[in-house]
Structures are given as C-alpha cells and as structure tokens.
Prior knowledge:
Elements (H helix, E strand, L loop, with lengths): L25 H16 L4 E3 L9 E4 L9 E20 L7 E15 L5 E7 H14 L4 H6 L1
Amino acid sequence: MEILDILEFPDPRLRIKSEPVEEVTEALQNLAAEMAVTMYANSGIGLAAPQVNVHKRMMVIDTSKESEDLMVFVNPEIISRSGEMNTIEGCLSVPGLQAKVKRSKRINLKFTDIEGNDKTKTFHNMKSACIQHEMDHFDGKIIIDYIAS
C-alpha cells in the first residue's frame, strides 16, 4: 500500500468541489485502503478524498484510540441533525493549526459503504464531528474558514 501525498493549505486544489462517486469499483476500494494507510501514517482520525487530490465524495474515518474502527463513507449525505457542540479540530491539510468549530452533536447519515451497500446510520459526538469535518472538504471548505468567520 502506498502512502498518498496530502494537499496542504494554501494549495488551491483544496477548494475544488467534489463530484459524487458513480459506482463502487475495485479502484475505489484500493483508493480507500490507501487513504486509510495515509490517515494512520499521519496520526489522523479522518481523511477525505479531496485531500489526496481525488475530487470525489468519499472519506475514511477512525476515531478509536486503537485504530480498529475504520469506516469508509461513499457519497455521504446528512439527512438530519440535532444538538450542538463545540469542538477543537485539527486537519491533516493544515498541519499545526487547531480551530474551535461548532458542529451538530448528532447526525443521521445516508451513505454507501465500500462494498456498495446503501445504509443509513446515526452518529454522535466525536464521530459526528469527524464526519462533518471531512464532508466540509467535499465543498472546498477547510478549518481556516472557521477561523476567518
């Protein structure tokens, strides 16, 4: 498995809007595996495809302390949200910076898994914040934007 290069701010490619994934293929599964290796190698808990210069709506996350809860989300869509929380977030594309961000505490997410199955699941707290953070990358938004606002 290859460790991929992560785009870093102010690289303008971080601002490119991502397209939906058309179908789950072996190439996409391989990309997800390489993204996971890259995320773990950089001590991250999430990585969106746009951060590795692939402008598709896919992300990997693992918020567990033991790196044993890898999740891959293809074309995720938040269908409902509730509650608010403030988080202190870092970003692999903005090394060394942390920002306070207001996020929804609970989200109900519709997505396709890496096997191509459509799912709906509820996430809370850190997983919720991590998913929302990675989804920001699909729209070209990064944590610098939260500081600026």
